[in-house]
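Running this now, will post back.
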Amino acid sequence: MRLVLQEFLSLDGVSQGPGSPDEDTSDDFVRGGWFVPHLDEAFDRVATTWLSGADAFLFGRRTYENFARDWPRMTDHPNARILNDSPKYVASRSLTRAEWEPATILSGDVPAQVAELKRRPGRELQIHGSARLGRSLLAAGLIDELRLAIAPVVVGGGRRLFPDGGASAGLRLLHSETTPSGIAVHVYEPTGRPDFGTYGADA
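Update: finished.
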């Protein structure tokens, strides 16, 4: 399976709490729900197309618990079946039981276990949110594709997908589009270490 990271971001790179004010209030974050005003039918179609390629999902603990709280009750949503019925893997040091089934808890050497999952037959193993998990797997060279949906908003604080001091990564743009509400969708393929150069006529 290919490992795909899908993230909602603000223009200033925030990934925390895009869906509601109480989605993730850790570290006293009070600006959640910033992505919701920009949702439109065009992005719904993009998200549905992405989900249709998933054979399994990989979550960090916090995102898993949020999804497990909401999606079993959203049976009328067109994406509910694939999320509720597909295999789910949860990277967590603290969970001992995952009630939103079918689910398997990954602990210990998570990158090694994810590498093993990637060797299984299938299309995509998708990470939705779970920015810290996604960032660590990108640094480990395990991410095959990044799908970033960037809302036209500056949140001004909160946890970022790529914080200062993180690992560097080169990317190749595969696809780009903008929805009527202004969500910029960028799809990238990691290319390893980035190139650095000097700008100038003689460079």
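DSSP finds five helices and eight strands in the chain. More later if anyone needs it.
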